[in-house]
Amino acid sequence: MMGARYITPLDIEYFYTGVPGHPFTTHSELLDILEIQKALGAVETAMSGVLNRIYGALLWAQMNQEANAFGMLPKTTWVRSGWRVKTQFGVTNFSDIGLSETEQIPASSVPEIMTVYATPKIHVRVFDVTDVVEALATVSSDDVWGAAHQVRAEVGVEFAKLINQALLAKIYDPTGRKVIDTIDRIVSKAGEVGVTPGWEDVYGIDRSAPGMEWANAYVDDSSTLRDLTDFMIRRLLQQTRARGANTNVLLTGYDTYAVIQGIYLTFARQGNPMTVDRAQFGINGITTAEGNNMGIQIAKLYDIPLVQSVDCPKGTGSGEISYLYGLDISDPEGYGFPRLGISVLRPVEYFESRDYVLLGKFVVRGVYRFVGELVARFLYGQGKIRDIRA
Fold it and tell me: What gap in Å lies between CA 189 and CA 202, rounded to an integer?
């Protein structure tokens, strides 16, 4: 037949791989191939040697890696380890400032001053990559995940997540604690429900000692679980502000956030106080973003940013939901230091060594380091609601 030719194995390969518009295969030849397919059977992935799976050097984490609390808190350099606090006015009764026309000038008085100090904590995260894996990933055509540059990126994300978890750990025995202090212990009080006496003490302050009321945060606790209500949230804001706080961020878990959303769905006729805004997390903590194309979208409740973190602590009761914190991270005094923030002695740094003799084995070793502490220069104005349920 004019123009006839033999069907080659390459034609069959093109047919099975679906190459469109193959110019060397006519319609009749395709029908012939189909007859061959019916006779011989189709090639399947289950056949030995047919499919060589290539996974690629991409990695999808199967766990929540957000570190919102760490990103939310402002960071400042570690200028000094201690700070002074004013715990009482020099004149405690306003009537004492009055003076009769010919009365003797009263004796002078000064406010009560105390000193508080913190110690920076060292945090490290180490990983090793063997020289063989590094070489294979660099010079071979093998499908390799685990080169130093890949592990470095993943461990960096883990490091921030671990610091976030340390920040949001529940109050527990501080003896031997080596990691950054927890928000929950800073935002606590003497006699808090379910807390072993002494565990709430922070920076060496005995919160249960006489005259130490100034060191106790506002805590709405209970021996029984309660439904979270709008009144409780408004009371948290009222109590912290009555103590002199500029409560400018709310922090909670995703479960409590969902409950809060449900609370205000019933307020539709009255006007929902929950709004949505954009904010940026950076060295100054949470700040308002300029315009609508920047920052992370967050909720706002009573015009206060409401940040969620999966690591936010909660109790163990049935149906119990995450604590709700009302935090003052502002700097109204203008000292350049927030009332609550992370003081950084050494920012997050990365070190890498390929000195096999020094390391004692043929590996690439990477180390992340962060040195700092969570510092609250205004304990009295911080607040939280706990012992709540959905």
Answer: 10
Residue 217, Cα to own-chain centre: how many angstroms?
A: 22
The whole-angstrom separation of Cα 106 and Cα 129 is: 74
Dump the DSSP string for 232-285.
Answer: HHHHHHHHHHHTT----EEEE-HHHHHHHHHHHHTTTTT---EEEEEEEEETBE
What pLDDT is recorded for position 125? 97
- Which DSSP string corresponds to 70-113? HHHSBEEE---SEEEEEEE-SS--GGGG---TTPPPPPP---EE
How many Cβ atoms sit within 10 Å of the Cβ of residue 358?
8
* pLDDT tens figures, 326-383: 999 999 999 999 999 999 999 999 999 999 999 999 999 999 999 999 999 999 999 9
Which pLDDT value is given to residue 81?
95
Mean of pLDDT values over 243-248: 96
Residues 10-36 as b or e (16 or more Cβ within 10 Å = b) = ebbebbeeeeeeeeebeeebeeebeee
User: 364 and 129 in contact (C-beta within 8 Å)?
Assistant: yes
b/e map of 182-192 (b: 16 or more CB within 10 Å)?
Answer: bbbbbbbbbeb
Cβ proximity of 362 and 356 under 8 Å: yes
Distance CA 365, CA 124 (A): 13
230-242 and 254-265 helices cross at what angle (nearest 10)? 110
SS3 state of residue 198: coil
Pairing of strands 363-376, 226-227: unpaired
C-alpha span between 218 and 190 (Å, rounded): 10
Name which residue leads in pLDDT, 46 or 351.
Answer: 351
CB 228 within 8 A of CB 256: yes
> How confident is the model over 152-164, as a mean pLDDT?
96
| Tokens standing for residue 38 | 């019916």
- Asked if residue 349 lies in contact with residue 183, where contact means CB atoms within 8 angstroms, the answer is no
